[in-house]
Structure formats: C-alpha cells, structure tokens
Amino acid sequence: MLTKADLCEDPAALAERARGLHPGLVVEVMDARRAEQAEVLRSWCGPGQSVALLGSSGVGKSTLAGVLGAGDLATGGIREKDGKGKHTTTSRSLHLLPTGGVLVDNPGVREFQLGDCDEGVADLFEDVLRIVAECRFSDCRHEGEPGCAVRAAMESGELDERRYASFVKLNEEQARNARTLAARRERERKVGKSYKAAVERKRRRG
Q1: Long-range contacts: 130-135, Cβ < 8 Å, 24+?
Q2: CB–CB of 123/22 below 8 Å?
Q3: How are the residues of the chain apportioned to helix, strand and coil, as percentages rounded to the nearest 5?
Q4: Fewer CB within a 10 Å sphere, N or C end of the chain?
C-alpha cells in the first residue's frame, strides 16, 4: 500500500516499480485521507478477515485505519529536521470494522529483520533459483563466468536486475542471521547445561 499519493508527481510509476519486485505482488496507491480511495482495500476487510497495518512512522497508517472505519485515531505530523513521522501511535490496537473485518493498527516500525527463513526466501525467489540452476558451473558467482544463465537472463530481460539484487541482499542477510541464530542457540544450550548442573549439585547437597 503506497500512501500519500498526493505528494508524488508520478505515483503510477512508483507502483509499477514496486510490482516488479515480485510476480503477483498487489500494489495499490492512494491518498489515505480520502475515504473514497480506501474502497480498493474493502476486499480485504470483509467478515472473518483480518488486516494489520505495518510501516514507518508518518506514512499514514492511523489515517488509513480511520477511513476504513476504525474511528478517529490520533495522528501526528512530520519532524522537520529529518522528514520522519512522530510516534503518535505507541501501542497496538484492535478495531472491528463496519464491513465485518478486524483491523490492527501498529506503532511505526523502525527496522525489519529476517528470522531463520531459508525456505521463505527460496519460495519468494523460486523464479531466480530456477535460472541459477541453469548456470554451467554449480559454483557460478554470476559475475561474468562463461555459461552464466543469470547474466544471460538479465541481458535478455527475463530477469529484472533489481529483483536479482533483492535476491542477493536477502540471501546475504539470511546468512548473517543464521550465524547469529546459531550463536544464540549455542549460548542458550550452554546456559541450559549450566542450569541443569547447578540444579543437580543442589539436589546432591540436599
């Protein structure tokens, strides 16, 4: 959901760019202050459906929640020094919408991080992995090696360079997170082992 369309000279171009990030990605553009534009979201707000609003501070989450029927929620302005939103929403809130759906309004998100999600990345970039598998060499780095299917696909237009860059970025982040997760699990294992040893010593002392 791209909000504040009134502040952009060519919102349609930005929407098209966002759609190119993944096949089948649904991207809508609107001015969150205009209730009639919220109609594009009604199909997600029916009986038995739940909607969660996530995004940075100041992007219009609470304003959007209001036009969807969640009531008048407090909103704040934008800080002049950095152009970022003020944290008016400080806690999650659950709202029953007139259309029968449920909406969760969340505080602004400062950062998104990946968890342990190898399978998720593989599912998201199945098309890229299919092309990678066609490279002549299994250890191809896709940096100009002969028989590189990835480079060929980008040159022919089959694979968007931005999508491949996203694939590389997420893989690198996942690798870092996997190392961090492994280290944390090792620490937890050692703590658990120490705790069990302490309990056993206490039991023996009676």
Answers
A1: 131/158, 131/159
A2: no
A3: 50, 10, 45
A4: C
Interatomic CA distance for residues 70 and 96, integer angstroms:
7
Residue 174 identity: Q
pLDDT over threshold 50, residue 85: no
- At 12, the amino acid letter reads A
According to DSSP, the residues that pair with 104 across neighbouring strands are 52, 94
Residue 26 CB neighbours (<10 A)? 9
CB 64 within 8 A of CB 104: no
Walk me through the domains of the chain, giving residue ranges and CATH numbers. Answer: 5-105 (no CATH), 118-205 (1.10.40.50)
Q: Which residue intervals of 20-142 are DSSP H helices? A: 61-65, 118-124, 126-132
> Phi and psi (nearest 5°) for 70?
-85, 0
Residue 197: pLDDT over 50 = yes
